[in-house]
Amino acid sequence: MQKIASFTVNHLDLLPGIYVSRKDHVGNSVVTTFDLRMTMPNREPVMNTAELHTIEHLGATYLRNHPAWADRVIYFGPMGCRTGNYLLLNGDLDSRDIVELVTGMFEFIRDFEGEIPGAAARDCGNYLDQNLDMAKWLAEKYLKTLYNIKEENLVYPE
Question: pLDDT tens, 89-99?
Fold first, then answer.
């Protein structure tokens, strides 16, 4: 069998950033999958499920309520390796196109106070697995990359 595209990325040199993982054609539309890499794979600890789950709840809430992007959001959620998240958007997009959107989302997460949206037994299958403080810390860490984004944080390494 052929390796899938995401397994061909050089994870040894991958930095935190925003990367186009793939583009799929669905009818007349293009769906762009973004790799929102928050940690350096195999060089930094992975994120625990509680904080990643909180990032998912807050990030999805932000994206699905965004005035300009809500109608283009298909999916936002964690990678199995726990080093980042995937964001799927309708449109033929590049990494630079969403820097402002992703920055705004992680500022929202960093600054969030109160009850985590959807973190109730009726709304979520694992509602107790949340860690807002650590999610906020990770958002602040990722924002350091987003505020100083460079080409090496936008294009996969060879």
Answer: 999 999 999 99
Is this structure's pTM higher than 0.85?
Answer: yes
Q: Which two tokens stand for residue 63?
A: 């994206």
Tell me the three-class secondary structure of the chain, residue by residue: CCCCHHHHCCCCCCCCEEEEEEEEEECCEEEEEEEEECCCCCCCCCCCHHHHHHHHHHHHHHHHCCCCCHHHEEEEEECCCCCEEEEEEECCCCHHHHHHHHHHHHHHHHHCCCCCCCCCCCCCCCCCCCCHHHHHHHHHHHHHHHHCCCHHHCCCCC
Residues in contact with 47: Cβ distance below 8 Å, sequence separation at least 6, in sequence order:
38, 39, 55, 78, 82, 83, 138
Render pLDDT for 24-37 as a digit per residue (tens, 0 to 9): 999 999 999 999 99
In degrees, rounded to 5, the angle at the alpha carbon of residue 84 between the alpha carbons of residues 79 and 87 is 75
> Which two three-digit tokens encode residue 54?
């909180």
